[in-house]
């Protein structure tokens, strides 16, 4: 094989090399390190960590705080994803409606997308101020005589998870709205016209035309949202820190506390590895679904 | 063969893409609230001792100093000190400044990947962990003139960390709220505190702020245990062992806060209230009493306030313990320039020859703090009058912080905080509370 031939053959690999190198350095190696930490005792903090096999995983599964965080995470993710879809669909339908003028739609589009534009810190500060016991929400409630206006929204163990879910829904639905709106604008109008001629009601058109047409988009964004919501951290940490009494603690917060409060990198890595496996499973489904769409 | 190769390559790329999809969904770690620096002891007005023979200046050496101080000081202040030090010694100090909340992460990450700075600032809550990780060098062996310092933190007899500035925690009192509520004087005993808080709450104001948020669970230290220390009540017995279970004094302390809670006198939302929020709420005039660092006093310029000692248990006549925190620093065990690092710390405490406390004094007066340097004489004339009057109280009493050096202090304080919330809300009895705390303290670091 002469040099020219080798150069020609290796051309695609050379193009790929910088990307692959970056992914290996910034992705594969860190992930491998985290996974390896999960199999040793006193990772990072000890110069001579000992291999402990699956002991960390067994310990994790016995930890009630882990299960509390896991169950909170499941509730948080499911409620958020479902609410995102429903709200996103409603707002997208409104913006796609022929009953509003273009100017109205443009203004509404800007207003509706605002929560998504705010950074996590702005969202957290904004809501924390409004939800303070002496904040504007309780102040507004004070005008309703039959309603308790002394709510400690974020400091009440029975309310904190629901409030955190609500705020996450509020700041996440615009992504769905924009994606679904794009999908709605791509649905051929003649499908609706044909359905109307056949006597289909608006509801039937929605279930038998809109939903099937949007299904690839809905599945894609739901899977992405599932993965992103599973890893939500900033807003939760800044709103409640997982409290009170771990009532709003998600796996991401649980991992953070293990890492930076307890300096227990081994258990933190173990939990992160479990979370990684869940995310990878969903990511594989996502990639497969995308492949199907392309085909 | 070719096809097989392509398949493997495609498989590897697909795997990378899946992993990147997962990783890209992640969020960056947040910045939490500003915290409580940490510990420090009462200063002594002793004359400066002669410095130890420092190693010869190492011209051209650069040392890195990881700290949160630069963020809290006026812009360029710490850099100015570093520039003066370089002009005197030829040693360049590269400042790596980040908020307190990010500093521990940065230091442990640096330790993990071998990029830890030569000099690292240390919070009292991190001391035991950093020591166990082997991050901290022996300061005396490195050349620190320990006689310049009023206090040096040790672990197992080895001096690892020296405080530079000490921050105390006065109880701030909003005099407008007291007057409006008919409270005639700042309470000095627990009974007076309960009565005053009741009057304030009845008048429609928030009375006492207790921060029990857990992003930085320091309310258990700065407010709750501080109230105990003010009355000579501590977590440890005379033998230095944790003595919490069945401790009648701590039980009485817990019951004091339970009474305040039951009377509706604790600031609403306490279980997620963080120190910075507590301070800003006091600054906004939303609360009658709060306990916060003296360094925050400048934020209260629009208030009619006083800085007082925390009320003591009825009948207690001894000195009051005042909670403190510090800007402290140690030398990294991994540093190749320990002598130069020690020289920098000596400079912060006693100037270039160990007789000039102006650097330390300047840091203290700028931050309304107290210097750990024995030879510093800060000029507090420009500080608020309330600070100057509290300085007198500070000199008459003593500083204490039993959480300094406690292994896994952050984690222990979080657990103690969670139990205290349960107790205050009536879901845990006081004996169980104290038994749990005893367990956390006994098992700390295990």
Q: Your description of this structure?
A:
With 295 residues, chain A is an all-alpha fold. Chain A has a single domain (63-294), classed as MetI-like (MetI-like fold). Chain A is built from twelve helices and two strands, in the order H-E-E-H-H-H-H-H-H-H-H-H-H-H. Chain A has helices at residues 3-37, 55-62, 64-96, 102-117, 120-131, 136-141, 160-185, 189-197, 202-230, 234-239, 251-261, 265-294, and strands spanning 40-41, 50-51. In chain A, strand 1 and strand 2 (50-51) form a beta hairpin. The longest helix of chain A is centred in the first third of the chain and has 35 residues, at 3-37. Chain B has helices spanning 2-24, 69-72, 77-89, 100-113, 127-132, 139-142, 175-181, 190-202, 219-230, 248-262, 275-283, 338-350, 358-366, 385-396, 409-424, 430-443, and strands spanning 62-67, 92-97, 119-122, 153-155, 158-168, 171-174, 206-208, 287-291, 305-308, 321-331, 370-371, 398-400. In chain B, helix 7 (175-181) crosses helix 8, helix 9 (219-230) crosses helix 10 and helix 15 packs antiparallel against helix 16 (430-443). The longest helix of chain B is centred in the first third of the chain and has 23 residues, at 2-24. In chain B, 54% of the residues are buried. The model of chain B is unreliable at 23-55 (pLDDT under 50).
């Amino acid at each position: 094989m002469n040099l020219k031939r080798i150069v020609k053959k290796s051309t695609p690999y050379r193009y790929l090399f910088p990307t692959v190198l970056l992914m290996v350095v910034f992705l594969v190696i860190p992930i491998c390190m985290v996974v390896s930490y999960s199999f040793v005792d006193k990772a990072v903090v000890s110069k001579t960590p000992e291999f402990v096999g699956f002991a960390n995983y067994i310990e994790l599964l016995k930890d009630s705080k882990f299960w509390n965080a896991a169950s909170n995470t499941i509730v948080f993710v499911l409620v958020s994803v479902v609410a995102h879809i429903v709200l996103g669909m409603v707002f997208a339908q409104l913006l796609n409606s022929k009953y509003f003028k273009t100017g109205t739609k443009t203004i509404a589009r800007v207003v509706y997308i605002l929560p998504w534009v705010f950074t996590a810190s702005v969202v957290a500060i904004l809501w924390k101020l409004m939800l303070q016991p002496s904040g504007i929400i309780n102040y507004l409630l004070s005008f309703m005589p039959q309603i308790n206006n002394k709510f400690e929204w974020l400091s009440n163990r029975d309310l904190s998870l629901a409030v955190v879910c609500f705020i996450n829904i509020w700041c996440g639905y615009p992504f769905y709205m924009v994606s679904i709106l794009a999908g709605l604008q791509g649905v051929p109008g003649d499908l609706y016209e044909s359905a109307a001629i056949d006597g289909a009601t608006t509801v039937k058109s929605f279930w038998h035309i809109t939903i099937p047409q949007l299904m690839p988009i809905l599945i894609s964004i739901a899977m992405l949202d599932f993965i992103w919501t599973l890893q939500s951290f900033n807003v939760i940490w800044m709103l409640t820190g997982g409290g009170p009494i771990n009532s709003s603690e998600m796996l991401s917060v649980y991992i953070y506390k293990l890492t930076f409060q307890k300096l227990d990198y081994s258990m933190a890595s173990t939990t992160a590895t479990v979370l990684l496996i869940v995310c990878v499973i969903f990511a594989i489904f996502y990639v497969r679904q995308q492949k199907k769409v392309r085909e | 063969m070719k096809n097989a190769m392509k398949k493997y390559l495609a498989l590897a790329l697909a795997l990378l893409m899946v992993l990147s999809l997962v990783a890209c969904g992640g969020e960056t770690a947040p910045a939490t609230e500003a915290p409580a620096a940490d510990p420090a002891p009462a200063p002594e007005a002793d004359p400066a001792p002669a410095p130890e023979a420092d190693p010869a200046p190492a011209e051209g050496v650069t040392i890195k100093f990881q700290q949160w101080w630069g963020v809290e000081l006026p812009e360029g202040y710490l850099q100015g000190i570093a520039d003066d030090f370089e002009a005197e010694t030829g040693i360049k100090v590269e400042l790596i400044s980040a908020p307190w909340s990010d500093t521990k992460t940065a230091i442990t990450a640096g330790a993990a990947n071998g990029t830890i700075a030569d000099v690292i600032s240390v919070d009292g809550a991190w001391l035991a962990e950093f020591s166990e990780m082997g991050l901290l060098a022996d300061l005396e062996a490195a050349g620190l003139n320990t006689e310049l310092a009023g206090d040096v933190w040790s672990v197992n007899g080895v001096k690892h960390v020296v405080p530079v500035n000490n921050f105390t925690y006065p109880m701030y009192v909003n005099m407008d709220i007291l007057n409006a509520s008919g409270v005639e004087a700042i309470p000095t005993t627990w009974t007076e505190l309960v009565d005053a808080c009741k009057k304030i709450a009845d008048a429609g104001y928030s009375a006492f702020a207790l921060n029990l948020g857990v992003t930085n669970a320091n309310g258990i230290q700065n407010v709750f245990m501080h109230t105990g220390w003010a009355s000579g009540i501590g977590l440890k017995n005379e033998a230095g062992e944790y003595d919490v279970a069945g401790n009648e004094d701590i039980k009485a302390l817990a019951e004091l806060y339970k009474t305040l809670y039951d009377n509706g006198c604790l600031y609403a939302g306490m279980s997620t209230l963080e120190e910075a929020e507590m301070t800003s709420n006091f600054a906004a005039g939303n609360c009658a009493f709060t306990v916060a660092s003296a360094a925050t006093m400048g934020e209260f310029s629009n208030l009619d306030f006083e800085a007082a000692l925390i009320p003591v248990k009825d009948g207690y006549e001894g000195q009051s313990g005042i909670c403190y925190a510090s800007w402290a620093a140690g030398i990294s065990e991994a540093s190749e320039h320990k002598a130069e690092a020690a020289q920098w710390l000596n400079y912060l405490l006693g100037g270039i020859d160990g007789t000039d406390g102006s650097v330390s004094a300047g840091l203290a007066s700028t931050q309304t703090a107290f210097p750990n340097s024995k030879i510093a004489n800060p000029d507090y004339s420009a500080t608020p009058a309330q600070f100057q009057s509290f300085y007198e109280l500070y000199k008459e009493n003593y500083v204490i912080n039993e959480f300094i050096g406690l292994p896994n202090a952050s984690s222990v304080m979080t657990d103690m905080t969670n139990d205290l919330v349960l107790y205050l809300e009536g879901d845990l009895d006081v004996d169980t509370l104290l038994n749990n705390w005893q367990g956390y303290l006994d098992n700390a670091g295990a």
